[in-house]
Amino acid sequence: MYSFEEVFYPNYAKVQAVNNQLAFPLALSSELKKSDMIRVTFKGKPLVLLRLEHSIKAFLDRCPHRGYPLSKGCIKGNNIVCSYHGWAFDSDGRLVDLPGDPNFLSGSSSLLQEFKVVEKDGVIWGSESAIDIEEVFTPSVKGTHDRASIVRYIRANKVDIAENFLDALHTHTVHTGIVRSSRPKHRCSVLVESIENGYQAEYTEEDTQTGFLGKLFGGKVLKSIGRIRYPGIIEIEYLSKNDIEMSVVVYIVEESKYLCKLIMRTYLKKTRVPFLMKALLLAPIQLMVFNQDKRVLERQAESLKRNSDFRPLIGRADVMRSCIEKTFAQEFVAYKKNIELCL
How far apart are the C-alpha atoms of 90 and 108, rounded to whole Å? Predict the structure, then answer.
């Protein structure tokens, strides 16, 4: 078993980065319709997210009366109404109606714990304090590529999910013929390095990828880059000589230890071929790959639940596992390391 320090950077200085003001992804904009509300999760806390006439609001998903989830209620006008006893709150969290009390007077202070939210590029973000929209994560391909988005759930822990997206070694066995074939492998140079709030691995292969995806891009893909940034943002880019041909961005939202919501967005370079045509060709393949990974991850999670004392072995070929663990722990190490693999 190799430690993180042995594999990557034997003489490193650890940097602990704690940022409580960082914005977390909550939902796709398309999930929240006008005059509607949904339950989302922020750092393990249940929130009710509501879209009012001129704003989006987020409160702790708990009525202060009896703790009933406000997300099970409804919106009337600009007020949120609890469906248990009918208590109503305005957009600032003030109690404005209390059925059954003939002498009720509206309060002047909020009874609901509010969270800050912003909407950017089709994603709703949340924080415990004011959000600088310029500091919210933006994919490197924004504006230059067409995109499609979906939301899925996996009953597995966030570290294993992140590693699955960033791990190239399982593609021969789990995704045989799609990402890579089972034929003899070729050498690949991997550059692992730190980035802001995370890490990335850049794969440069001696030969083109052998699966269907490689053929789909006509052998143009010369290298790929996998990144993870806190609080759980995955970027996978497939690069040709001059451009990023495709990028997949995954926002991992932890709902509980063994349940994560995945906001997944695929970006394709704009070409003469209509985006809808490319998306219709690619979507079934991506869905197949996702379902294969989901099956593996959920089986793994069930095994881990039965073996609570299990600790994974990390070898030299597991180039991103320790990086992922460090990222979620907000422990960032300044390093740069070349590793040779066979893919």
Answer: 11
Q: Tell me the residue ranges of DSSP E strands in 91-219.
A: 95-97, 114-120, 123-127, 145-154, 187-195, 198-205
Query: Residue 231, preceding bond cis, omega within 30 degrees?
Result: yes
Instruction: Tell me the two tokens of residue 333.
Output: 């190490």
Same domain as 203, residue 303:
yes
What is the span of the domain harbouring residue 178? Answer: 145-342
Say which residues have a Cβ less than 8 Å from residue 102's Cβ, sequence separation at least 6: none
Radius of gyration of the chain (CA): 23
CA distances from 319 to 34, 199, 337 (A): 44, 11, 10
Percentage of the chain lying above the pLDDT 90 cut? 67
Are 37 and 69 a contacting pair, CB within 8 Å? no
- Name the β-bridge partners of 260: 154, 254
Last residue of a domain, one of 97, 114, 135: 135
**What is the rounded distance in angstroms from the CA atom of residue 194 to the CA atom of residue 334?**
6
Provide the token pair at 24.
Answer: 């977390």
Q: Residue 235: how many CB atoms within 10 A of its CB?
A: 24
Note the pLDDT tens digit of each residue in 80-135: 999 999 999 999 999 999 999 999 999 889 999 999 999 999 999 999 999 999 88
| Assessment of whether the complete model's pTM goes beyond 0.85 | yes
